[in-house]
Amino acid sequence: MELVSGQFPTIHFIGVSTKQSSIMNVFPNWARELGLGNVSINGVDLPLHAPPELYQEVVRFIRNDQNSSGALVTTHKIDLFKAAQPMFDELNWFAESMHEVSSISKRAGKLIGQAKDPVSAGRTLTGMLPQKFWPGEGGDVFCMGCGGAGVAITWFLLQGDHQLGTPQRVVVSDVSAERLAHLKQLVDAAALEIEVVLNAQDNDRILGSLAEGSLVINATGLGKDRPGSPITDEGRFPRRAIVWELNYRGALDFLRQAEQTAAERALAVHDGWEYFIHGWSCVIADVFHVDIPMEQIPRLGEIAASVSGRK
Question: 172: domain range?
């Protein structure tokens, strides 16, 4: 864990393996495009489910260090909220309701914690799916994983303000009954089904119950921070499914499983690249107090792709 005061205003990246992220090379180019001046980025690596005192140490450093402008939090969003909630002067509604912090910033001497996943996930989904997808050609929704991203996606689809329509069936699975119960409290909708799963075979079973044209999401983190996939190789995607792997780097086993049957099952397969672009641009806007209009996002995507060698 590297907590060193930088020479310039700094955004910290709190994750598990930050040095492998494209943002470490992309950020300086974005900073020039956005006219941020002399700024820097610093990776802070913490183990999964780190002790509370480590999260508190990081938040305390950011609060007290003059050149720490804020941070983007990934993977640790829920654990950091639980450990450091009292250390923030303000939390936005999403952070308080979803029990997570993904954006840390400063304003008028106050430390601000926000949950940005509903915004970044919503922008990604509205770019991925046509307007009025539900009802229409859209089927069910199956979100594997009920961490911060899974909660945000479910909230956005069932209660957010968008033009996609409302799916009639949304199934969310997770190994944690506690996380699922919190989701049920937050999103009170007849369309929502929650299911505790013990293994990948349980997810296979749910996958097999979905209608054609369903949206299937891997929000578990498996394939990035931890090895594996939430389904087995025997899992069968519904025909014409839209398959969304939230990660863009790592082994991405779930993404490979979908790609192997994409032609046979007429699947539309997406990784987490667009989510990465929207997630970071939202937090950078908070941390450095800049307006990043939606019209500028494609340009940021082009820069990121060029720097990362992504075709």
Answer: 119-271
Give the count of beta carbons closer than 10 Å to the beta carbon of residue 211.
14
Are residues 45 and 154 both part of a single domain? no
Is pLDDT at 311 greater than 80 in this prediction?
A: no
Q: What tokens were used for 13?
A: 């990246």
Output the six-digit token pair for 136: 């229409």
Judge if 169 and 134 occupy the same domain. Answer: yes
User: For residue 111, what are the β-bridge partners?
Assistant: 106
| pLDDT tens-digit readout, 18-53 | 988 889 999 999 999 999 999 999 999 999 999 999
232 token code pair: 């087995």
Instruction: Give pTM, 2 decimals.
Output: 0.90
Classify residue 3: in a domain, yes or no: no
Q: Between the CA of residue 219 and those of 35, 97, 109, 143, what are the distances in Å?
A: 33, 19, 35, 7
**Is pLDDT above 70 for 200?**
yes
Is residue 173 within 8 A of residue 209, CB to CB? The reply is no
Task: Provide the β-strand partners of residue 106.
Answer: 111
Distance CA 9, CA 172 (A): 40
Look at the chain and report how many structural domains it folds into. Answer: 2
Kindly state whether residues 109 and 232 are assigned to the same domain.
no
Chain-wide mean pLDDT for the chain?
Answer: 94
Which token pair is 131? 């307007």
| Residue 186 backbone class (left: φ over 0; alpha: ψ -120 to 50; beta: rest) | alpha
Residue 12 has pLDDT above 90, yes or no: yes
How confident is the model at residue 269, as a pLDDT?
97
Same domain? 218 vs 197: yes
Q: How many C-alpha atoms does 196 have within 13 Å on its Cβ side? A: 9
ω into residue 135 within 30 of 0, thus cis? yes
